[in-house]
Design brief:
The protein is of the alpha/beta class. It is elongated and about 70 Å long. The chain has two domains: 15-188 and 361-375, Glycogen Phosphorylase B (Rossmann fold, 3-Layer(aba) Sandwich); 192-358, Rossmann fold (3-Layer(aba) Sandwich), CATH 3.40.50.2000. The strands form three sheets. A seven-stranded parallel sheet has the order 3-2-1-6-7-8-9, sandwiched between helices. A six-stranded parallel sheet has the order 12-11-10-13-14-15, with helices on both faces. It contains 13 helices and 15 strands.
């Protein structure tokens, strides 16, 4: 969705430009909050093939697509045989669209060409530039020497950073960013949809054996769904009765269904992508949520599940794990004994319940960004 913007330049009004690849629905409340406080324009590169979201933008939020193109490739995840798609966005239009808008502050997402253009604009105009980053030491362990060189260049000139959370801050410090220059927020979701108890409560899994083991995510190799099925297969081989439910879509569906049959998992469901309201019902109807990812810079489905109160088991390869969960709820999906031990706790009811005090609301995150922009430096809390 794109809205053409014609905004007259007014030096009395602070103007915020947000430069991103794709407009993610979970960020819209934050963008809307900022748009209430700044004249805000989102300059985006368009949708990616694996990010086909239906968006509902608040009227105050202005968006404009940037002229450019994408290069789609493959990247290694560091796990043998597991690759993921990569998208390189060459948003050349920023060269003229930024000066036309004339922002007094810029937020640029990730470290690539758009951030280099933003930093060049900031250098020429004296406008502060914030770089919003979400990689971790684990997710970035296999990047190319070219990307390392590019990032060292960006770190040299970028003095204001926003990180997804602890693991992203840890990565930024490892490449030379001073901690005092980092606003550590937390990747968050519009939590209101997951706090409301559905009325009437739908019995999604009536007649199926419990515990109901639920996971949500794209059906791609990186998400580790096959490791979850293998672990559940070992449970089934030992006589355990349970139901495994996967919510998501993607190219791995047929292979996962075949794996479930081969592993003799009698009660197995794959449901397509669901709305937030339906996900709220599914989280609440299940007994444990498992996030078996092999690599995620965060893992927002963990936030969603925690808000509903369901116990969560999470892969150690998710950026959110150490920030949101106790060590007893974290496992290594590549080590059968670790995965099996975690799932065993779902059967004896010893998975630690979610600690909601670990979660930040989108309002808290948006306020932290707002205060930091206005002060010109990171303001936490």
């Amino acid at each position: 969705m794109t809205t053409k913007v014609n905004v007259s330049k007014d030096s009395s009004c602070e103007r915020l430009a947000i430069l991103i690849n794709t407009i993610a629905p979970y960020r819209i409340p934050i963008y809307g909050f900022l748009a209430e406080r700044f004249t805000t324009l989102i300059l985006h590169g368009g949708s990616e093939g694996n990010r086909n979201w239906a968006l509902r933008l608040p009227p105050v939020l202005r968006v404009q697509k940037v002229w450019g193109f994408q290069i789609v490739g493959k990247k290694s995840t560091g796990t043998p045989g597991i690759t993921d798609r990569s998208f390189i966005h060459l948003n050349i239009g920023l060269l003229w669209q930024l000066p036309l808008f004339g922002p007094s502050v810029v937020i640029s997402n990730e470290m690539g060409l758009r951030t280099i253009i933003a930093l060049a604009y900031g250098k020429l105009t004296g406008v502060p530039v914030w770089v919003w980053w979400g990689g971790t030491l684990y997710s970035e362990r296999n990047i190319s020497s070219g990307r390392r060189l590019l990032r060292s260049f960006i770190v040299r000139f970028a003095k204001r950073w926003i990180s997804y959370g602890k693991t992203s801050t840890e990565y930024l410090e490892s490449i030379g960013v001073a901690r005092k220059n980092i606003l550590q927020i937390q990747n968050c979701v519009p939590h209101e949809a997951f706090l409301e108890i559905p009325r009437p409560v739908k019995n999604w899994f009536e007649g199926l054996p419990h515990p109901v083991i639920l996971t949500v995510g794209q059906l791609i190799a990186r998400k580790g769904m096959d490791k979850l099925i293998e672990a559940c297969g070992r449970l089934a081989a030992n006589g355990a009765k349970f139901t495994l439910v996967i919510v998501g879509q993607g190219p791995e569906r047929e292979r996962l269904e075949q794996m479930a049959m081969a592993n003799h998992i009698d009660n197995f469901l794959i449901l397509p992508n669901q709305s937030q309201n339906t996900l709220n019902e599914l989280y609440r109807a299940a007994d444990v949520f498992v996030f078996p990812t092999l690599e995620d810079v965060w893992g927002l489905v963990v936030n969603e599940a925690m808000w509903t109160g369901i116990p969560v088991l999470c892969s150690e390869y998710a950026g959110c794990a150490i920030e949101l969960l106790p060590q007893s709820n974290i496992f290594d999906p590549l080590l059968p004994e670790s995965f099996d031990g975690a799932l065993a706790r779902a059967f004896d009811g010893t998975v630690a319940p979610p600690n909601l005090s670990k979660l930040k609301t989108w309002q808290e995150v948006a306020s932290m960004i707002d205060r930091s922009i206005k002060s010109g430096s990171p303001v936490s809390g």
